Amino acid sequence: MAGESNIRRLSVRGFRAGGIASGIKKGGRKDLALIVSDSPSSVAGVFTSNRVKAAPVLFDIKRAGKGVSRGVIINSGNANACTGEKGFRDAKAMAKAAEGALGLKDGSLLVASTGVIGVPLPIEKITSSILRLSQRLSPSGWMDAAEAIRTTDAFAKAAVKKKRIGGRDVTLLGIAKGAGMICPDMATMLAFFATDAVMDSATLKDALSNAVRLSFNRITVDNGTSTNDTVLIFANGLCGGQPIRAGGQGFAAFSELLTELSLKLSHMVVRDGEGATRFIAVEVRGAVSEGEAKAAARKIAGSLLVKTAFFGGDPNWGRIMAALGSSGIKMREGSVEIYLNRVRVVEDGMDTGMEKAAARAIKKRDVTVEVDLKLGSHIYKLWTTDLSYDYVRINSSYRS
Question: How far apart are alpha carbons 389 and 397 in whole angstroms?
Fold first, then answer.
C-alpha cells in the first residue's frame, strides 16, 4: 500500500516550489506559482480537448514534446486565452523571465495560466515579480504554490504519497486547482505532479494518460471544458535505482500510485465544485459495452434536472430514467434498477414505493446513484455535484 503524509511535512527530493501575490488578483491574494526541479527532469503532459486552446497550452504542447524540463511557472486570475499573438509572446516572456531568475537555459520551463478568458495578461506585473518568487522557493513551498493557482476554489488542493517500488522509496506529490468549468473531456483543470522516480518521458506519458482516464476524465461539475486544461508530471530520478519501464512490475506499481493520487485530487475538485452541497458518485452497470455505460453515466451526471433534484434532497428517479432514455444507449425500460444511497427506488423500470426512505438516505453530503441496465457486464463510474443557487451567483459575477 502507498503511504500518505501531510503535504506540509513532506516534499519531493530535488524539487522546490512557491507562490506569491503579483497583483493580478485583487486583495493581495497569491496568484503566481513556480515549481522547479534542481536537475533536468523527464516531463509529460495531457492537455485540453477544447479546440480553443489558450496560449500557454499551445506553448507547452510544443515544449513538453521534447521530453525534458526543469519545471513550470503558473499564474491565476487571467487565462491568457483568446489573446492572439500577444498571448504567445506573454507566455514566452513568463518562461524567459523565470529561466533568467533561476539561471536556467532558454527552453527549460513550461507555463500555465488560469482565470478570465479574453483579457490580455498583465505581463509586466508578472515579470517584475518573478525574481522575488524565485527567492522564496523552498522544498516545503507546495502549499503556497497550491494557494497561488486557485481561482474560485474554496480551498487549496494538494496530496502526497510514498510507495516502495523496485527496492526504492518513490515519492509522488501533486497539486491541483478546479471548482468550475469542469467537464470530463480531459483533465478539466490544472494539475501538477512531481516525483523522484527514474522514468523517461514516454513511460511517464503512458502512466499519466491512464491516470487521467480513470480520474480527472471522470469528473464533471458544469459540463464546461476549459481552454486551459493542463496536467503535467515531472520526474527527476533522484530516488535512484533502475528506471521504471512500461510493462514491468515497477510501472504497474507507479501507475497505481499516480492513479490513486489523481483520484484523490480529482475528488477534491468535485467536492469544491462551485456552490456544491453534494458529492455524487454515478455508476452505471449491466451495459452492453463500456462506451454505452459511459454515455449513460455522463448523461445522468450532466442532467441539470438530476443535479437540481439532489440539491433539494428530492429522490426524483424519473429524471434519472429520462436521462437514460435520452442517452442513446441500448436499454430495456422494464429491466432497469436504480438505487439511491443503496435504497432501491426502481425495480423492473417501476417505482418501489421507497421514496421516503430514499429521501432520508440522500440528505447526506455523499450520494451514490447506481443504475443496473441488466443487459451486459460493463460498468462505468464518474463523480459529479448537485447544482445550487450559489453556482449561479458565483458564475453570474465571475469577471466582476
Answer: 13
- d(CA 188, CA 218) in angstroms, rounded, equals 9
User: SS3 of 63, please?
Assistant: helix
pLDDT of residue 8 exceeding 60? no
Task: Specify whether 188 is catalytic.
Answer: yes
Are the CB atoms for 352 and 321 separated by under 8 Å? no
Beta-strand relationship, 190-195 and 168-177: antiparallel
Which percentage of the chain shows pLDDT scores above 90? Answer: 80
CA distance 208 to 235: 12
Q: CA-CA distance, 69 to 140, in Å (whole number)? A: 21
Q: Cell triple for residue 223?
A: 459540463
Q: Cβ neighbours of residue 4 under 8 Å, at least 6 residues apart? A: 159, 160, 161, 162
Contact 137, 18 (CB under 8 A): yes
Q: At CB < 8 A and 24+ separation, what contacts does 155-160 make?
A: 155/268, 155/272, 157/265, 157/268, 157/269, 157/272, 158/7, 158/265, 159/4, 159/7, 159/261, 159/264, 159/265, 159/268, 160/4, 160/5, 160/6, 160/7, 160/10, 160/12, 160/261
For the stretch 57-102, pLDDT in tens is 999 999 999 999 999 999 999 999 999 999 999 999 999 999 999 9
Q: Residue 257's closest CA among 164, 322, 180, 339?
A: 164
Domains and CATH numbers, the chain: 3-271 (3.60.70.12), 279-396 (3.10.20.340)
For helices 304-311 and 317-325, angle between their N-to-C axes, nearest 10 degrees: 170
> Mind listing the pLDDT tens digit for each residue in 198-226?
999 999 999 999 999 999 989 886 665 67
Task: Provide the 3-class DSSP secondary structure of residue 14.
Answer: coil
Name the active-site residue from 114, 171, 188, 384: 188
Q: Give every CB contact of residue 103 below 8 A, 6+ residues apart in sequence.
A: none
Structure-derived torsion over alpha carbons of residues 138, 239, 74, 155, reported in degrees to the nearest 10? -80
Phi and psi of 84, rounded to 5°?
Answer: 65, -155
Residue where the block lists cell 526504492? 168
Bridge partners, residue 161, by sequence: 4, 172
Task: Count the residues in the chain.
Answer: 400
212: CB partners within 8 A, 6+ apart: 46, 186, 187, 231, 262
Q: Backbone phi, then psi, for 330, in 5-degree steps?
A: -75, 130
